[in-house]
Amino acid sequence: MCDLTQIHASCAARGEQGILLVGPSGVGKSDLLLRLVQAGFDLVADDRVCLNGSWASAPPVLAGLMEVRGIGIVRMAWRERVRVAAVARLVSPPGYPPRLPPLPGRDRMTGQLEFFLDPALPSAVARVELILDCVAGNRALLDDGQM
């Protein structure tokens, strides 16, 4: 059972940073999560995420389970919880903005920085890594006036 809020989302962790993947059904949350896990991220939750403040975890009944379309539900190694560092709002064309805003906004539910991401892009995993690098201060996120 979730401590506070349960949402339709997925979550992965890189070190101490969690990335919350949110978006409508069928946009590619689980597919991107699978690619992140293959790239060395830890599975936290697939399909449903429990939020307790800025902490994310899987509902106990779904812990360690990932749905892979065309294959089925697979049991995988998973992390119990992680602090959410950023939110990736998954959108696909035509919902993908032609030009992203110079700086990300804040997600209403978590208060964390929110980025828009097309999960079908071949660079989606690299973009998630870049998002987490920016949030951690390892890379500078510049606005238009600084380019």
From TrEMBL:
Alphabetic keyword roster: Kinase, Transferase
SUPFAM superfamilies: PEP carboxykinase-like (SSF53795)
Coiled coil feature spans: none
Protein name, per record: HPr kinase
GO BP terms, alphabetized: regulation of carbohydrate metabolic process
InterPro entries assigned to the protein according to its UniProt record, in alphabetical order: Hpr_kin/Pase_C (IPR011104), P-loop_NTPase (IPR027417)
A GO molecular function held by the record: phosphorelay sensor kinase activity
Domain of life: Bacteria
Pfam families: Hpr_kinase_C
All residue ranges annotated as the HPr kinase/phosphorylase C-terminal domain in the record: 5-75
Membrane-spanning segments: none
